[in-house]
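In practice, a research group might receive sequence data for several interacting partners and want a quick structural hypothesis before committing to experiments. The following worked case mirrors that situation: the sequences arrive first, and a predicted assembly follows.
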Amino acid sequence: MAYVAVKGGTKAVLNAEQLVDYFRLKGGSEPISVRQIQDQMRLAVDRAMGEGAIYAPELAALALKQSEGDALEASFLLRAYRSTIARVDYSLPTEGVRMRTLRRISATFKDIPGGQMLGPTRDYNLRLLNTLLRTESSESAQERLAEIEKLIEEVPDEVQIFPKVIESMRAQGILAEPPAQDRAEADAEPYDITRRALTFPAPRSARLQVLSQADAGSLMTFAYSSVRGYGDVHPTLGELRYGYLPIEVAHPLTGEPVEIGEILATECEMVSRVEAAEDEQDAAQKREATPPKFGLGYGFGFGHCEVKVMSMSMLDRVLSVAKENSGHGAQGPASNEEFVLLHTDGIEASGFTAHYKLPHYVTFQANISVLERSREHQVAQFAATVEQRQQAESKLQDLLKTAASNEGEE
Amino acid sequence: MEAETMQEDRLNDLIRQSLDQPVIATTSANVEGQEKATDERELLYNFAFIDEDSKREIRRKLLKAVALPGHLVPFASRDLPIARGWGTGGLQVTMSLVEPRDILKVIDQGDDDSVNAVNLRRLVEKTTGISFTTDTTQASLVQTRHRVPEEPMRADQILVLQVPMADALRAVEPVVERATEMHAEADYGRMWVYMYESVVRSGDVEISSQYPVLVENRYVMDTSPIPRYDVPRLDQAETLYLFGAGREKRVYAIPPYTTVVPLQFEDYPFKTEHNAAQRCERCGSNDTFLTHVFVDPKGPEAQGRWMYLCSDTSFCQKRVQARELSETMEK
Amino acid sequence: MIGTSQGTQTLYSTLTFRLLLDALARPGKIKQLESPQFWGEAPSYSERNTAINLHALGALLTLLDRETTFVMGTNGQWFAREEAAVRWTMLRSGSTLANPEQASFAFFCDGGNSALFAQLSVGTLLEPELSTTAFFCVEQLADDLSEAHEDGITLELRGPGIQDVSTISVAGLQVSTLEAILFARKSYPLGIDVYLIDGAGRCVGLPRTTKIQLRAETR
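A structural hypothesis for the assembly, expressed as tokens:
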């Protein structure tokens, strides 16, 4: 089998690979186990899984180890892996209400059916560095675990299902139904962005898929801009949940739903006022026909990713509003669906930004030749201007001389 | 000197190792042995990496692309082990085409040895077991970034071009939805205005690469960042040109014997960068695309200097060898 | 999917694609398709218990999967879902039958029928690539007119992929079908892309860009 002989380029690439490994190991510390990353870097694992768009915590931990903690690089590894796996089946749609919740809060009402449950959150931790972590050992970790376990009361036998806060809103008649087109799309097969390229305008199922696997930081930036003033949406957190969601498929013979496992996921529902139309006539008609209600924005992600799902739900709301009011980026970039969906995928964005490191000397050579021609043109133009001015000046001189001689004659 | 050869030997060992014991098991190129091999070995990855469903989708889209010269056909671009923007589109096209008897050449800026070409070649090597070459005339498939090879390609070859931007209208209309409508209605007025404005601004059309062309008098197409020098090669060619934009998720094609005309004005006709007075300082050619390169000094006394050299390194090497051969024969 | 050797099938799919691609890129150039032995016997259509052209059906199968749809017909009628040939195709590809207006692929077991052909999609201005691709099983294809079938019609082809002009002879394609093909592509970029495949596996591609002229018969 012929292969191109090892020359300068190949050498460089091979050397670079050796150096990457060298930098990872030269500190001399004990190699981290994949298990340790999976257990103790839970949130990094969840981020890698979410953006890698594949639920595989152990592989995500491996990817993080391989990429020295670079979450984007890790999610890239996972995406590439996902491309190679054959698709066996599609799960049945599952509802967030069936979640075995570990954490569940709402900002809309002080108390909600089922209660507010803080669960594992750092929200109320004081952000002070804990130097005790430096001296953590297996023994101290075991002791700490035992300490916490003593505090856990008996676990109830039945799995407690918490109703959705938005259902209360629906019952109160204050939650708007999605627009007709969305409902029609909701009944149809979801648009599969891994099987069909995205085109615009995009159906909501496509939008939600793109947002769910988008880079958390990008979503945050857009969401922040929209609530900070570059948007017309004032959201309130309807409900945020984190817990175990059952996954079901249809039995191949009987067609009955069969649970094949659970995933940890975070779900968010944001509500915001459905703004009346700008046109006064329309608004009056609207007020008569339908009372103002709250619209829903939805966010979902693998693992524990609160800021991401909150950002996603805000953006979902902003984009729905923009569509209903037919505005294209009317209120800022976050309202522009194409802009948001095309620029928030971490793998695409980082890949293309980084590609500027690739050689571009052919196009640069071409640019230089165009630049030189532009300069020549500029020089020629300047020369032409100078000549024009000189001609004008000499004419002026002539006129002055003639005038002076005339005067002299008088 | 010794250290250098030792290092080279070590590197040669490494590359042989990675090919003999691939991280990824591949199907053997031997067709008869394939059936047996499938039973014996557990295939971790499919031949040419991407799964058959993905290949099928790309193939369906490529057929439509050939039936619609210059038109952008969307495809569900898969995530690959190579980053977006680094050739995933071209790679997916190549992976959908490649069969065990193919001989592949991969170049970047015209150079087989460019680090990116090396990397792309490695992925194909690991997942197909096909043969490679640096000789354009020997290849059945050529994957390229930013150049068309100097040696005219034949009917039994295919050129796959890596494309970053895909839509020629991007410069005047960044919104994809609107640009698609413009193509649908052949509404290219704004493109002409853009070119006119550049003439007014700088005395001539300012576009240096990704030069827009009109294909079969219907679609305005982005030629990818090949120099203007290469644009005429697309018109009435013998070979099939396939363009892949992975991140943008589009493929397009120029079939052979297709009319491809650069956008130009009567009084500002299309010109290439070619300067017949400039020669390659290595092989003496004045009929190739040259780039300005800083060449390091050979010895401690010599000084490095800037030289004009052929961007198509293999072709340049051929000419150098041919000249050396004729010189030896003359003696 | 019915189990066959994965390796052989993968190779066949790849080689067939290269032939179909070249056929469409060079309209009028005759390509020789392989027969997919691993599929065993071709299904027949109940009408005349005629076995379907396996070269053509095999080629179609390489492009079908659960993401696409097809229609199949002969003698002026579309096959129903219960038709053996349809079931055979669906089982081996994962693809499903669709309405002619929406199908991505159309397979004619004979020289076609203009009325059926007229139901197929020509695409839209925004998405001309969504048009159907049609396969016709013809009797004989020849590029050397001396070898042409006496009932054959002679077509002169011009357009992208062809240097000047290409001439082929086709036996088993109705002139009315040819007219339907031309009608479908009268407003470029709309149009239906066509493959003609004869019993010996010879294949010719006629993308919508190809201008086809029927040469008057001189006997």
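Before designing any experiment, note the following. Chain A has two domains: 12-84, 103-125+138-355. The longest helix of chain A spans residues 361-409.
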